[in-house]
Amino acid sequence: MQKQKFLGLTTRFYAGLALIGVGLNRLLTGEFLSVPIELNWQSAGQAVSATGLLIALLWLLVSLNLPFMDRIHKKLEGIQKLIVSLSFPEIVYLSLCAGISEELFFRGVLQPSWGIVIVSFIFGALHAVTFSYFLLATTIGFFLGWLLQYSGNLMVPMAVHVLYDVFALTLLARLYRNPRF
User: Fold this and answer.
1) Pick from 58, 60, 73, 164: CA 20 to 30 A from residue 67's CA?
2) Measured between alpha carbons, how far is 162 from 118 in angstroms, rounded to an integer?
């Protein structure tokens, strides 16, 4: 797929997901969003700390070169060229789109009604490239859900999701450019 077409489809998908989430929440609760989104120093500190934990976990998994990581990379072979072609601003843009809209939908709309466990499994299932990745994504979804419950602020899991995606996509592009990294 051409990069510009991919970026356009991604933009429309995530804009649609956010609009569906806000619209669904409005229909179900009468509010556009049931949880607050507040930018403050406390939420920034929580987001940076939590992102550090996820980055450390990802770095450990990549460094250990476990067999299930190879299976994930094999599933992603079809989009390697696309990932490598992304500039850093495009990576940041995609990460912002995914992090904001997915957290708005999963944690901001679904989690208050369906609970952290069910929403984490749905999040994992929709990210499942392999069974191992399903387990990783479910665990990350649970962690993001816990962050919302702990902080009471949707900005925290949104920021963590964005920062993690920036790191993960940058790392993935670098690994594909230089497999011995």
Assistant:
1) 164
2) 22
User: C-alpha 171: how far from its chain's center?
Assistant: 15
Using CA of residue 88, residue 164, residue 100, residue 126, what is the dihedral sign? positive
What are the residues whose beta carbons fall under 8 Å from the beta carbon of 27, sequence distance 6 or more?
none
Compute the distance between CA of residue 102 and CA of residue 110 in angstroms, rounded to an integer.
Answer: 10
> For residue 37, which of 57, 21, 14 has the smallest C-alpha distance?
21
Rounded to whole angstroms, what are the CA distances from 42 to 38, 168, 170? 10, 24, 27
Residue of 40, 129, 11 lying closest to 77 (CA atoms)? 129
For the stretch 145-166, pLDDT in tens is 999 999 999 999 999 999 999 9
Over residues 21-48, mean pLDDT: 93
Q: Could you list the residue range(s) of the whole structural domain that residue 58 is in?
A: 3-177
Nearest to 127 by CA among 151, 108, 144, 109: 144
Instruction: Report how many domains make up the chain.
Output: 1
Radius of gyration of the chain (CA): 16
